[in-house]
Structure formats: structure tokens, C-alpha cells
Amino acid sequence: MTVTSKEQQKLIEFLKPNPNHSGSLYVQLTRTLTLAIAEGLLKEGDFLMPQRDLAAALGVSRVTLRKAIDNLEHQGLLEQHQGAGTIIKANKTPPIQKNLAVLNSFTDDMHARGMKPSSLWVNREHVAPSPKEALALNLSFGEKIFRLTRVRNANDVPIAFELAATPARLLESLDSIDESLYEALERFQARPVRALQSIAAQNCDSQVASFLQISPGDAVLYLERKAFDHNNRPVEFTRCYFRGDLYDLVTELKLEV
After folding, report:
1. What are the backbone dihedrals phi and psi of residue 131, each rounded to the nearest 5 degrees, phi first?
2. Model confidence, pTM
3. How far apart are CA 209 and CA 42, in angstroms?
4. Alpha helices in the chain (DSSP H)
């Protein structure tokens, strides 16, 4: 199915990078192409304009456009055929819905949905806590934490940028933590069984945007969670930025009688 000239012009206007935006052209194009698929401007079976023509129409280099297209092909949204062009493979997967009434790890949550979880490790530290971390984890003076900074992926798509802290005394070493912090805590009889968390909408900064492959200023859901084990000890303090276009938070409400 080929997009008409009128539809192409509408698509070009939608995809054009914003010169006033601080986000890189590649990140902007990745985001706007994804949104174009999600909102039906590009449907399954549609062909993109030839890359040379599309790059010229958008005022970007072919290298920049190719990088965005390669990224979306990796996500399964586009498919490139030698000599035939780039075709829309499938509409964007609906946002992941997270039930706020259930306490489980990101890894368990993705496995339960039939998705492949993975992490891009940004930093793993055995350090003194920040004042906020020390207060949240009820630490004594001189105690240290394991701080984990990582990008959480579902089916190789970045979903969340996460900073998690746990008291170092609870685990043997940083090497005790593999994909799931909760699994590591469970091995040492300290898995969280309840948590207090707060959620707010924010506009992300350039660091978070870079890790989540979105543009600075895009909407994210910011979550802070303080989790406790069966002895009511605080064992986890996590700050997490979820992509607003890929993550929905839901909960069930019941009438109190």
C-alpha cells in the first residue's frame, strides 16, 4: 500500500524535527516515526518514501534518517527490503499496563506478559548513601548501600530508567545481583513484601531522555518506591522514570462499605 502525495505531505510535516528542541535529530525522528505508526499516519503495509527523498524533505542527513529507521526495524516496527523500500511491519504495541496493587520485580512483570526483560547497566556501586537514600532505608551512620543504575528494556525497547538502592549488609556483594534485585534479596531472605510508592508526571531532562530514546521535555512517569521485607525492614529505595508513551499505571478501586 503506497501513501498518497497528500498523505506524504501530512506525514512530512508531522515528522519534521523541531529546530527549537534540544533533542538530537536521530532521537526526534525515532520518536515521531513511532508516533506516526501509533496514531495511524503510517499503517501496516504502507511504504515510506525512498530514504534519499525523505531525508531531503525533512532537512536531515541520510545517515541520521537511516539510524532512526534501523532502530525502529530492530524494534519490529519497520522492515527494509532491498530494492523495494521500507515497509511498516506492524502498528506499535499498546502501552504496558502496570497494576499498582501488585508488588513484583520488573523482570517478573515482563515475564508474566510474555515479554523479554533485559537491562543496560549504567552503573553498579558500593557507596555511601545520599541523605535521601539514608533516610528512606533507615541507615545508621557509616552504613553503605549498593546503588544500581540501569535502563530496563522490554523486548529490547527501553521502558524505564531506574536508580535502585539497597543496604549493602543485606547482600553478599554486588555480584549477587544479576537481572533482578528482588531475586537477589529473596536468596538472602530479604525480598520485599510490601511497599509505599508515589507517582508523578514529569518532563524528562536530557540524561533520562538519552537513555529512554525520547526527546528532552517528553512526558515520563516518575515513581519513588520504598519497600519492606517480612520483618518490616526497609530493603529497597527505587526512583524510576517510565516512558509516558509506553507505560500505563492502573489499579482497581472498590467501594468502601
Report:
1. -55, -40
2. 0.67
3. 24
4. 5-15, 25-38, 51-58, 62-74, 106-112, 131-136, 181-187, 206-212
